[in-house]
Amino acid sequence: MGIQLEASDIDKAHQLETGNVTINGKSVTPPYFENSMVIQKVGNYILLYGYEDITIRWDGHNGVYVHLPPAKRNSTCGLCGNFNGIPDDDLKTPDGRITTSIARFGNSWSRPDVNEQCRNIPEREVQSPCSNKSEAEMNKIRGKCQVLNDHPFTLCYGSVNPQGFIEMCVQDVCSLNSTSDPDSICDSLTQYERACAKAGIAVMWRKKGLCPVKCENGMVYEPCGSACPSTCADHGKSKFRCQNQCVDGCHCPMGTVLQNGRCYKLEECPCEHNKIWHKALARIPVDCND
Q1: Interval 41-66: pLDDT, tens
Q2: DSSP characters for the chain?
Q3: How many domains, the chain?
């Protein structure tokens, strides 16, 4: 699965895929800067921002988030809706018809010319993955998802109702057909964590045995870190306008900045000379005849 950005005034196709970014078919390594556009790896995401104040976040798995400025209201269409503040008319097909069938809606916007693996799905009633479970199995599954009723998730109840996420969790565990796999509930808990972060509440819930995230290179896990972290290259002051949003994942702790996937104190930042990175205070021999 991947994301491709095309626009009439952009002369390059930007493709975001799991662990890979390509520009017109050529692989590039984030951070990538092009005019006002930035592609960056932050936390769990690849971010693309700067084009007409649009931000796209892709977690490389099952989460795609598009942030549009108010000027784009009533001017969009497709799988993300028309951005008019009325959710009841979001399932609109390209010919302007509103449908109640998720399959018909999705099929109408498929792009086999972009990805031949993007095939239409049958337009029949979708059967719940839990429909063939016994009552005893369902009790185990519901019990597994009750973690959303415990602390610290309860800190977010006043802002985000957890019921829909509990139901999502039950469906996920049924689909994976495993009550013994501890990771079967992680996607649903992560989605609730992100909804809480959007509401301004950071829920620190991950721990050993419950969807842990291992951070390396001096990073620490944050449910709501900056979408535009400071780097050694910008001397701790990002020169790009950052949308007011946060992203979950591994981030540099306070007092450090990011560079080449590692965290540094600003005074210990490496420096670049002739496209080669050197340690702070390193001596670089220079041929004065060059």
Answers
A1: 888 788 887 778 888 888 877 788 88
A2: -EEEE--TT-SS-EEEETTEEEETTEEE-SSEEETTEEEEEETTEEEEEEETTEEEEE-SSS-EEEE--GGGTT---STT---SS-GGG--B-TTS-B-S-HHHHHHHT--TTT-TT------SPPPPTTTT--HHHHHHHHHHHGGGGSTTGGGGTTTS--HHHHHHHHHHHHHHT-SS-GGGGHHHHHHHHHHHHHTT------BTTBS-----TT-EEEEEEESS--BTTTTTS--S---S-EEEEEEPPTT-EEETTEEE-GGG--EEETTEEE-TT------TT-
A3: 3
